[in-house]
Task: structure prediction
Amino acid sequence: MYHILIIEDDTDIRSELKLMLENALYQTDVIEDFTHIPAQVDALSPDLILLDIQLPGVDGLSLCREIRKTKDTPVIFVTSRGSSMDELNGIMMGGDDYITKPYVAPILLARIAAVLKRSGRENTATDACILTCRGCRLNLLNSTLACGDKTVELTRNELRICWNLFSRCGEIVPREDIIDDLWDNQIFIDDNTLSVNITRIRGKLRRIGVENLIETRRGQGYRI
Result:
């Protein structure tokens, strides 16, 4: 199990990232004391760091440069600063990738896996991006659903809806949870659009020989 360190001052985002990563079978730690961060990184020795730029009393870009003096741990910036110059500065300071908020969870997980793969940790990284439920495989790296030797591609909305269902396999996922999740990530979707997307996902499942994977629980939501 690979170990990811979250350096983020927003408590809600920090908790969301931690839960997402643990659901993807990563070990996680968070930084809550923003003094002497390089020493904390040394002590925790993570396999990858998710790093915000705007931190209390310290600039994430400078912090990345400081970490790079002694460690080659992969660093992914996850920040609200989205200009091309900010991204360039992040890469120039030693960052391995740069993702702007609000991030899309499946895409962030795929980018984490890609960075771990480039750093020579591909087996576990790839496994963490493949969710399996009832014989079906959801691949976050290439946005596909598969069963046996048959595979179908998913749109961005379909991928995110499937991620919500597969990551909570066996649970009833309320429609409101899925809609709120998509809305929070700036993908406009209303109640009717969700129904249309579920119908399309079911159609793609039939193309790979899977029937009745997604169960509708009236007045509650969906379950696989």
About this structure: Residues 191-207 form the longest helix (17 residues). The mean pLDDT is 89. The chain has nine helices and 14 strands.
